[in-house]
């Protein structure tokens, strides 16, 4: 018996939305400028060397900073994600201080957010244009973490935020 899959956009969106993902704050610093952006398409990509993939919507202010720095810090959000969503959900212009009012410590990869449960210092090894996003493949070269549960995200529709 063969089951037919639907090629209707609504069916595709509903099915893609069932793929669970974490939500993280990607931070980056280059040439004295720093920013942070909420990212939800993050996955482990390899064991050896430890590698992750992160997608970033093209046109976000963090993109040129990542491209120039060649690295970033991934701050993993705890189960209680509301404070981070409130702060980073709207995005920031390049002129805005993305970290105003937050507990932040600078690292060689980008600002470390004290309210996150784990931090991955990443070195970009590849970048691929994928539709309206850029896919960054990065080796995790430094990290720290706590024994706490991360926020896990499911979408109603996998074709929009």
What would the principal axes of the Cα set say about the shape? globular
What is the SS-derived class?
mainly beta
CATH architecture: Roll
The succession of helices and strands, N to C, reads HEEEEEHEHEEEEE
State which percent range the strand residues make up.
35-45%
Helical residue percent band: 10-25%
The span between the termini is 36 Å
Radius of gyration: 16 Å
Multimerization status:
single chain
Number of domains: 1
CATH class categorisation: Mainly Beta
Number of strand elements: 11
CATH superfamily, please?
Electron Transport, Fmn-binding Protein, Chain A
Low-confidence stretches: none
The total of helices stands at: 3
- The name CATH uses for the topology is Pnp Oxidase, Chain A
Tell me, rounded to a whole number, the average pLDDT.
94
Strands side by side in the biggest sheet: 3-2-6-9-10-5-4
Profile the largest sheet. 7 strands, antiparallel
If you had to describe this structure to a student in words, what would you say it looks like?
This protein has 161 residues and is mainly beta. It has one domain (21-145): Electron Transport, Fmn-binding Protein, Chain A (Pnp Oxidase, Chain A, Roll). The chain is 14% helix and 42% strand. The model has no long low-confidence stretch (mean pLDDT 94).
